[in-house]
């Protein structure tokens, strides 16, 4: 099966990123769920919602809480600590207390495998 781009988030500068990095098997992820992965120095929340895979930074912008431990539903992940919801496609929170977007990484699916395009650093 040909690689299939899922346009999520802002485009990366090819000279300043790690390129496409394998992130595991897409099939192990149930719909409306998320897992944490550490890849290339990045903590990632890999989520599947509405049948689509997303990769975002696994840290709420309101506090140091893993979004992968939150609740995934209808294209959003809800932080379990104070309830801010983040759009899995844009990273933008829908309301307080979080006000800053979470980093979103481009992702593509090759058959059963997920690949994520990571920057060298997103700090
Ligand atoms: S720590 Fe996530 S909303 Fe407060």
UniProtKB/TrEMBL annotation:
InterPro entries: Rieske_2Fe-2S, Rieske_2Fe-2S_sf. Gene3D superfamilies: Rieske [2Fe-2S] iron-sulphur domain. Residues 20-116 form the Rieske domain. Keywords: 2Fe-2S, Iron, Iron-sulfur, Metal-binding. It comes from the Bacteria. This is Non-heme iron oxygenase ferredoxin subunit.
């Amino acid at each position: 099966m040909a690689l299939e781009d899922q346009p999520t988030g802002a485009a990366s500068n090819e000279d300043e990123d790690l390129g496409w990095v394998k992130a595991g098997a897409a099939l192990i992820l149930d719909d409306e769920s998320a897992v944490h992965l550490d890849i290339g120095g990045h903590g990632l929340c890999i989520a599947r919602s509405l049948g689509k895979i997303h990769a975002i930074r696994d840290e709420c912008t309101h506090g140091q809480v893993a979004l992968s431990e939150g609740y995934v539903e209808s294209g959003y992940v809800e932080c379990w600590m104070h309830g801010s919801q983040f759009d899995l496609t844009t990273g933008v929170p829908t309301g307080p207390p979080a006000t800053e977007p979470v980093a979103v990484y481009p992702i593509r699916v090759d058959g059963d495998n997920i690949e994520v395009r990571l920057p060298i650093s997103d700090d």
